Amino acid sequence: MKPSSFKFALSLINSRFGDGYASAYFENDELKEGFHLLSSDSAVLIYSPVELHPKFYAHSKNALVLNVAAVQKNLQNTGKASALLNGFHEQFSGHCDILIPLWYYEGSTNLQHWIQKKEGRLLASFNEYWKKESIEMAYVCLHCGAPPCLCRMDLYLLPRK
Ligand SMILES: [Zn+2]
Fold this sequence. Notes:
Layout: H1 3-17, E1 26-27, E2 30-31, E3 36-39, E4 43-49, H2 54-57, E5 63-71, H3 80-92, E6 97-104, H4 112-117, E7 121-126, H5 131-137, E8 152-158
The structure holds zinc ion.
């Protein structure tokens, strides 16, 4: 992976999810251990093994977590994100469950439609899921503004095929 791809991913994630959000996955412009990046010219995905996420672990022993899916704002609803997501799904859905934590707030646009098409289902919801982390990492949620973030997290499952 070229360093330029990391820089692109980092700035895209911060612009779509809130300043500083990418620091959950990057350190000194490098991906943190255990996280993986898929990117195209306009969209990025970050995924990781479920072992990195002890809170989700009980839901599935053989799973990947799709941490982030972000597409450039002016290219939303153009199929750019779906193309990358479909490639990811084809690559992994035969081998393991895919867990998708979705940031939810009133008016949020997210992956629900794509998840439905892939026959995913809601496993659980966690209120104020990012509250502690947003304070510790001082990131500015696009919905809540300055910490704390009080958004809900909806955890979806795309079962292994
Ligand atoms: Zn929030």
